[in-house]
Amino acid sequence: MAERPQPELVWDDGCPDCGTRNTALPSGRVPVLDDFDWSVRDFEGFRRVMLEELAAADPAREKWTQGDHEIVLVEVLAAALDRSSHALDDIFYERFLETARRPASVVRLLEAIDGRDAAEWAIESVISVKEAEEYGFASTGGGDRRQALLNALAARPDFIPLAKAAGSSALTTNIALITQEDVDRALLECPAVVQSSTLFSLEKGLQIYGARILLKGSGDLLLHDLAGGLQEDDFTDFRDWYDRRENLTIPPATDDPDSGKVDEDTLRNMTIRTAIKRVLEPLLPVGSRFMLTDGKRVGLYLRLCVKVASNRYKSEMQAAVRAALRAFFDASSWPFGLPIRESDVIEAIAGVDGVEGIIISRINIVGRPQLSTRIVEPLPDEAIVFDFESPSPTDGYLVLEIKGGRPG
User: Fold this and answer.
1) How far is CA 209 from CA 104, 212, 245, in A?
2) Could you give the C-alpha distances from 6 to 9, 19, 71, 204, in angstroms and in order?
3) Where are the beta strands (DSSP E) in 218-295?
4) Above pLDDT 90, what percent of the chain?
5) Is pLDDT at 119 greater than 80 in this prediction?
6) Which superkingdom is the protein from (predicted)?
7) Do strands 289-294 and 382-385 pair parallel, antiparallel, or not at all (unpaired)?
8) Residue 262: φ, ψ to 5°
9) pLDDT more than 70, % of the chain
10) Which of 1, 144, 349, 376 is paired with 96 by a 20 to 30 Å CA distance?
């Protein structure tokens, strides 16, 4: 039993009234280090540790053989611990999307981050119609599509990385549409829309989002036309986009036949404006209004002469110049109100190998007089279109002359 330490009174030299009581405390316990290797995780590690404990417990024993009962028990225990360690690793890995390997775990984790729909669409886009029917993607019910995703991942484990990547990408996707950029992004994701320009205004405390839109095609299709008026391939893409947006609009808790979702026939008989507003308007701030109007297409008339090197074939240079112009106007349609400068067009063509000179004799909007400033300026609600492969007043015209070069 420990004894209480006795204090000792010590007087300071030269001061009979100055003293201190010092107590000598007993030394602390000597720490005993743990010699167990906690890093062992496999059969060989567990077996080695237990054999070391046996040898330390009976140091007088010099001979150990594989037939000893102690060795047999050690190996049985090591095998059981190895299986348990492997099971713990599997359970731990299944808790994270990056390391999960079981289809059920992947789907559960994708649902936790709201990425299951993105994974479903990603897999459905790479499988055949026969596989889609086999896995169950042809069904439209929410629970059936979840089971279809499980079936696809179980039958094709190589789809698991694709599902993870698609589901994880949803983490960086903004669903709510707050800013003008958000509305523009959502509209340009629609396959039927080739150009949009969003405006925002505040009138008597009411937030109003307005957007000018150009639809796919030559300009004959407008927002008040039916969605069924799109070409069949375009309508298929539009329907897929509508379904994805509809899944974001209608919460999963109400994902049933009576939740207000529309079928394909109803969508065909719905105007394009109504269809777009139906899936995007609920994502806007509460109390705001969403207005869609048709933009105007104006074609560009461009007449130019290009001088090429003498060792170049005219046909090759004509194709190269057309490709350069196509790349320069590669925006489906020029943004609303954005002017086009003659110097920018010359710079785009001058980069073609073999071009020695460029003269633009005319550049203007079809039907309007040419200005001397060499700048084509559309109105704020107009977008310049230059599709010289199908010349028309709304798509533009190109007159290209090649000088020099070799015939052929």
Assistant:
1) 42, 10, 18
2) 10, 16, 55, 86
3) 289-294
4) 5
5) yes
6) Bacteria
7) unpaired
8) -105, 150
9) 90
10) 144
